[in-house]
Amino acid sequence: MYELKIITHFDAAHSLRGYIGDCANLHGHTWTVEVHVEGEQLNEIGLLVDFKELKRYTKEIINNFDHQYINKLPMFQEDKLNPTAENLSKYMYDELVKQMAHLDVNVKQVSVWESPKACATYRK
To answer: Which CATH number covers residue 15?
Structure first.
């Protein structure tokens, strides 16, 4: 089994609905996103998937978040998901699975870091 990992980031603000404490207030992070994919078969030149391609798929997702107030995005509005790191990691995982369905790789996990010492990871 082969596994690839890329790391990228974006800047965005959020506030946690229903939270008692400072995180209920509007605040921002430089979010780090870590994507792991895996597979058993390499292509004819020995790649599982081109890093450039994996970065492009990930960038298409995080561009929707960059320099945004996440609570205002359609999937995180009042009656939908609370913009926690946990929910962001699952949302990004699900989106990557859709975008990469035509490739012979599996999205293993997506981690979303709010700070250098705190992250949430989603995997199936």
So the answer is: 3.30.479.10
**How far is residue 67's CA from residue 12's CA, in Å, rounded to a whole number?**
5
pTM of the predicted protein model: 0.94
Calculate the alpha carbon distances from 19 to 22, 32, 35, 46, 82 in Å.
8, 22, 28, 48, 10
Q: Give the span between the Cα atoms of 91 and 81, in whole angstroms.
A: 9
Would you state the structure tokens that stand for residue 36, as one six-digit string? 């792991």
Domain count, the chain: 1
Contact 48, 1 (CB under 8 A): no
Note down the domain range covering 67.
2-123
> Which residues are known to be catalytic?
23, 67, 114
- Express each pLDDT in 8-65 by its tens digit: 999 999 999 999 999 999 999 999 999 999 999 999 999 999 999 999 999 999 999 9
The number of angstroms, rounded, from the C-alpha of 73 to the middle of its chain's C-alpha atoms is 15
